[in-house]
Amino acid sequence: MVKTSLCGLTSDEILDLIIPLGYTRAHAISISNSIYKKSVCDISHIAKIPLRLKAELRNIALSGIYFPLASEVSVDKSIKYLFRTDTGKEIETVYIPDNKRNTVCVSTQSGCRMGCSFCVTARHGFRGNLTAGEIVNQIIALPQAAKVTHVVFMGMGEPMDNLENVLKACSIITAEWGLAISSRNITVSTVGIASGVEQFLLRSECNLTLSLFSPFGEERIKIIPAESQYPVQKTIDIMKKFPLRKKRRLSLAYVMIKDLNDTDLHLEGLKAILRGSSIRVNLLSYHHVSNDQNCSSSAERMQFFKHNLIVSGISASIRKSRGTDISAACGLLAIR
Ligand code: SF4
Predict the structure, then answer these.
(1) What's this model's pTM, rounded to 2 decimal places?
(2) pLDDT digit string (tens) for 217-263?
(3) Inter-residue contact 231 to 238 (CB < 8 Å)
(4) Nearest C-alpha neighbor of 10 from the set 169, 148, 122
(5) Which uninterrupted H or E stretch holds 2?
(6) Does residue 329 carry a pLDDT above 80?
(7) Residues 226, 272: Cα–Cα separation, whole Å
(8) 37-59: string of b/e by CB count within 10 Å (b at 16+)?
(9) Measuring from atom 3 of ligand 1, which residue has the nearest CA?
């Protein structure tokens, strides 16, 4: 008999599992609290449930928690972890400590099928979607699980290409019976699959960031092939029109490459597409990948962009890179 993995179930789904055994919602909440808040791997150690329920649960379920196979520590103390799911998919996860803010960057797919030219993940093909449990496990199975304050969906894969699992993972991460991390501290990144973005905005309260690269479609398509099917302007229009609840953040990630997308023309294009919206811009430096002549814009050029956007009424910031020495930065994740 195939046993059910508890990690990845909502409290309602756990309740459905134990109701036929004669147990209640309070027991379901105890189980979900043990799995998601305490990372309890052995069902015998689940707190606040009767011994008989533990015995019955062991017959039909597993915790579903499994630990990383390897890790690599950066000079800046970021740690990259390698996981292998029970179906053999390999994925990478990055833990990024920063004073009181401890962020986990999770993968949503093993590999990716979007084919962005600057991304190392894309070069290794697509090996499959992750389940909600496999996404959540990347947080609760870390040695630092209890310290995690923020989660970003910016690892391997395009979240909108695995939307249902991403939405379910977000609900487990934010729920009181789950990891109880505020939706304000969760950010999902996308290259802009418009239908997915629309659904995500409607069905989740988490933040969204759109990877732009260029404000010009004919230029963007060369770097982000998804542009041909999902023109970024349509996604930006959806983001602009969406009524924002207080403290929910919509942003654009703009990776800056010298002479390629950091000209004055690009700056004007960026201002034009964002005019009249509350979408923020995060400027990121480019991480050089092998066989590629590009290099990042200078710090001065990035400051120039930031300043100009701000004086035009657009919120902008420069994001620092973490974990570049262990290939754990944006666009560098790939199983080695
Ligand atoms: S940048 Fe993101 S969406 Fe593009 S190929 Fe890499 S992982 Fe996929």
Answers:
(1) 0.95
(2) 999 999 999 999 999 999 999 999 998 877 899 999 999 999 999 99
(3) no
(4) 169
(5) none
(6) no
(7) 22
(8) bebbbebeebeebeeebeebbee
(9) 158
What 3-state DSSP class applies to 74? coil
Query: In this structure, what are the phi and psi dihedrals at residue 11, rounded to the nearest 5 degrees?
Result: -65, -35
- Please tell me the least confidently modeled range out of 58-72, 82-96, 232-246: 232-246
Beta bridge partners of 104: 95, 151
Q: Supply the mean pLDDT for the chain.
A: 93
Containing 253, the helix (H) or strand (E) segment is: strand 250-256
Domains of the chain: 4-62 (1.10.150.530), 70-242+321-326 (3.20.20.70)
> Which residues are near ligand 1 (CB < 6 Å)?
112, 114-116, 119, 121-122, 156-158, 191, 331
Question: Would you call 187 helix, strand, or coil by DSSP?
Answer: strand
CA of 59 to the centre of ligand 1 (A): 40
Pocket test for ligand 1, best of 91, 158, 228 (most atoms within 8 A of CB): 158
Q: Which two tokens stand for residue 260?
A: 């390629």
Which single residue is written with the structure tokens 């990478």? 92
